[in-house]
UniProtKB/TrEMBL annotation:
<dbReference type="InterPro" id="IPR002822">
    <property type="entry name" value="Ni_insertion"/>
</dbReference>
<keyword id="KW-0533">Nickel</keyword>
<keyword id="KW-0456">Lyase</keyword>
<dbReference type="GO" id="GO:0016829">
    <property type="term" value="F:lyase activity"/>
</dbReference>
<protein>
    <recommendedName>
        <fullName>Putative nickel insertion protein</fullName>
    </recommendedName>
</protein>
<dbReference type="Pfam" id="PF01969">
    <property type="entry name" value="Ni_insertion"/>
</dbReference>
<dbReference type="GO" id="GO:0016151">
    <property type="term" value="F:nickel cation binding"/>
</dbReference>
<comment type="similarity">
    <text>Belongs to the LarC family.</text>
</comment>
């Protein structure tokens, strides 16, 4: 699988993403052809080789004739929704704009539909966001990984006046995502750049790759302490081919004063609130007390919410968290037909190869209850039906 790693050592902005994509080989003309499908006149795209502190890359500029550029989120979303853009890039662009809109609504205390974009509503920002969505589709990377984003201190001037850095909208956009101190008083991460990264990439360590290409998107400024570049590293997965990968948070705490009833209820709540997995394991704790280790697996954006739930619903007074990667099989939901009715199953794939079909316990239990048959018998019947489905799938894939 083709993988793109975004090395954000000098931040990220919409124009830097566009420059990077062109530097990696995406034809600017192909991006322009898709952008021409939008009812946004009065601009001209250009690309040129530039260097920052001795490193060369591509800078994409948008020359704009338009002066008045206040648009609402609803205006932009409707424009994209009714456009003839390809479905994939169109929906990515809509997600990016919505993420910015939700952040602006939170900052200004207004409904999403009432959000007026100023800088982000300008033609050049529309071109940056939609162009990035189009360019990423043309690049064809099946996986995009991003480094933690470097945040700055100081102030920045915008349509509303002088704002602190990081810009309030940038912070809202990056809720639940990893950031680091950028050690800079210049704006390194713009709201547009933050939203693009948040919507198109997973935040994880550098992936195992067979390196193929390196590109640089050149920013509009010459920073005093670093080259103003967005580096992109493109390659093929070197290992674990066919497996999916994501990044999760492990939440862990040790408990020696909780009852089984409380722990059982806590597990139910965690799973119902979005935990990916929850487990208890026995411990021998201080003062010779038998205890329990609680381990929960969570999506990164759910970490704080689930940690707060554990602290409120148990006797825990602290939660340890760590971030790790998961390698996993791709799964699809399906049903198989048995003599007693339909049963839900999971199809488990390694790449396009169907490895196995796993019956869903709750569905099997419901069928066992309805048919008054033993659960083990239902499992055997479902597994036989699943095996037929697997053979049908293998026949179609040949």
């Amino acid at each position: 699988m083709k993988t793109l790693y975004l090395d954000t050592f000098s931040g990220i902005s919409g124009d830097m993403v566009l420059g990077l994509l062109v530097d990696l080989g995406v034809p600017l003309e192909a991006i322009e052809a898709e952008l021409a499908k939008l009812p946004v006149p009065g601009y001209r795209l250009g690309a040129a080789r530039q260097s920052r502190r001795g490193i060369a890359g591509t800078q994409v500029t948008v020359a704009v004739e338009e002066q008045h550029h206040h648009r609402t989120w609803s205006d932009i979303d409707a424009m994209l929704a009714t456009s003839s853009l390809k479905t994939g890039p169109r929906e990515v662009a809509r997600r990016i704009f919505k993420r910015i809109g939700v952040a602006e609504a939170a900052v200004h205390g207004v409904p999403l539909e009432a959000v007026h974009f100023h800088e982000v509503g300008a033609v050049d920002s529309i071109v940056d966001i939609v162009g990035a969505a189009v360019g990423l589709d043309l690049l064809g990377a099946g996986r995009i990984v991003c480094a933690p984003l470097p945040l700055s201190s100081g102030t920045v001037s915008c349509a509303h006046g002088v704002f602190p850095l990081p810009a309030p909208a940038t912070l809202e956009i990056l809720r639940g995502l990893p950031v680091v101190d950028g050690h800079s008083d210049q704006e390194l991460v713009t709201p547009t750049g933050a939203a693009i990264a948040a919507e198109i990439a997973e935040f994880a360590p550098f992936p195992d790759l067979i390196l193929e290409r390196v590109g640089y998107g050149v920013g509009s400024r010459d920073l005093p302490d670093r080259p103003n570049l967005l580096r992109g590293i493109l390659g093929r997965a070197a290992a674990s081919a066919g497996l999916e990968r994501d990044t999760v948070t492990l939440l862990e705490t040790h408990l020696d004063d909780s009852t089984p009833e409380v722990l059982g209820y806590l597990m139910e709540r965690l799973l119902s609130e979005g935990a990916l997995d929850v487990a208890f394991s026995p411990l021998q704790m201080k003062k010779n007390r038998p205890g329990v280790r609680l381990t929960a697996v969570a999506k990164m954006e759910d970490t704080d919410r689930l940690a707060r739930l554990i602290l409120r619903q148990s006797s825990a007074i602290g939660i340890r968290t760590s971030t790790c990667q998961r390698l996993k099989l791709r799964r699809e939901a399906a049903t198989v037909q048995t003599e007693f009715g339909q049963v839900q199953v999971k199809l488990l794939f390694e790449g396009t190869n169907l490895l196995r079909i796993a019956p869903e316990y709750e569905s099997c239990r419901a069928l066992a209850s309805a048919s008054r048959r033993p659960l083990p018998e239902i499992y055997r019947i479902v597994e036989q039906a699943a095996d037929k489905k697997r053979l049908e799938h293998e026949g179609k894939s040949r």
